[in-house]
Fold this sequence. Notes:
With about 260 residues, the protein is of the alpha+beta class. The protein folds into two domains: about 1-65 and about 160-190, Pseudouridine synthase I, catalytic domain, N-terminal subdomain (Alpha-Beta Plaits); about 70-160, Alpha-L RNA-binding motif (Alpha-Beta Plaits), CATH 3.30.70.1560. It has four helices and 13 strands. The strands form three sheets. Strands 1, 4, 5, 6, 9, 10, 11, 12 and 13 form a nine-stranded mixed beta sheet that branches. A two-stranded parallel ribbon has the order 2-3. It has a two-stranded antiparallel ribbon with strand order 7-8. Its EC number is 5.4.99.-.
Amino acid sequence: xxxxxxxxxxxxxxxxxxxxxxxxxxxxxxxxxxxxxxxxxxxxxxxxxxxxxxxxxxxxxxxxxxxxxxxxxxxxxxxxxxxxxxxxxxxxxxxxxxxxxxxxxxxxxxxxxxxxxxxxxxxxxxxxxxxxxxxxxxxxxxxxxxxxxxxxxxxxxxxxxxxxxxxxxxxxxxxxxxxxxxxxxxxxxxxxxxxxxxxxxxxxxxxxxxxxxxxxxxxxxxxxxxxxxxxxxxxxxxxxxxxxxxxxxxxxxxxxxxxxxx
Length: 262
């Protein structure tokens, strides 16, 4: 398993496909075997990792695995303890209640790089910084959470995914680094990579665990797949139409017939 860490700059799209208006992952990483895990929005910065392991993204982002992602967030206004406590308990969003987060007010760190373009400055409105950790992966979740408690996000930097710490690595904006997965506990119990399964495979809990669905007759023989259409049936196989005895025979001329010369 190969893992490459990137400190994603502001304004970079989390995709390898080229874009005429914006930079993408392909401007920083040139390895066709790698896929993005733990994407960030274009207006967010910081830690993303790329891997050749197909199921790692689902493993990291599944809340059941409790892989916390930590963000340094600059918010509009001087954040209050009441707002932080709301974040810790969970916030009601349009797509439901969030799980409890870890949230603390912090000072702007000395290691933080300048953003290009910089965050807008307003002399009459203060800003403050929060360190927040969540184990979910909803769309723009941190931004929606801080806005819901009255402090909109101005700048967002992801600093950690599990034990991977961008600050400890001292990666500058736009820099990459390959790491050894076995040195991190987050990657030591990942299930083996499995091949792609089509939608015809059973995925529900209690199903066949990824094996193709097989239906059997009472005698144990395998049912033939597919359902015959009416034109594929023998005469004796066609369903009989039930009537009350008053149905009249069809005497209408089939469409397209009966008119000579056309």
